[in-house]
Amino acid sequence: MTRHARDEEWESWLRAALNGDAAAYDRFLRAVTPHLRALARRRVAAFGAAPAEAEDLVQEVLLAIHLKRTSWDPARPLRPWLGAIVRNKLIDSLRRRGRHAAVPIEDVMEMLAAETDAREDDRRDAAQLLQQLKEPQRSIVRAISLDGVPVRETAERLKMSEGAVRVALHRALKTLAALYGSTER
């Protein structure tokens, strides 16, 4: 399949998902995740961050896509929107870890004004949804996705294996996706 055909397929699935098609949303997330993972690995390497941070970044990006999916303009290409989310989440992650990232201002000009208001709304929505999760899922999502704590540190803090933390995070994100979908109807 050509890149153009794949992009059109992803866009059609996301459009259907925005209209309430849960199966299309599942197909979209499953199809786009390998692309996000590759993009995250490249960006993490380019900024000199540890390769293990790529998977944490992917999880944060998937959560951001879920929370911000209605901000995608179906009249515009999807791939740049996805790339912007990866870039922004990487910058947030590096900032939390005390690293500095230089990004050309042209890359973020359009987003700066809209992001300030949207960020506060997103935090409020995320907090409400997080309250519906049971422990330890709530702590795992808060630590990894919101506070930027690495999986290893989260696992140590909760006395769990890294694999168990990743599985719990995945399940929690799936639960959040279902909860978020039910609140939008």
Rg is 16 Å
How far is the N terminus from the C terminus? 34 Å
Which parts are unreliable, with pLDDT below 50 for 5 consecutive residues or more?
Answer: none
* Main structural class: mainly alpha
Task: Spell out the blueprint of helices and strands.
Layout: H1 3-18, H2 22-46, H3 53-68, H4 78-96, H5 109-130, H6 137-146, H7 151-158, H8 162-183
Describe the structure.
The chain has 185 residues and is mostly helical. It has one domain. The protein contains eight helices and no strands. The protein has helices spanning 3-18, 22-46, 53-68, 78-96, 109-130, 137-146, 151-158, 162-183. The longest helix is centred in the first third of the chain and has 25 residues, at 22-46. The radius of gyration is 16 Å and the shape is globular. The termini are far apart.
Features of the shown structure:
mainly alpha; 185 residues; 8 helices
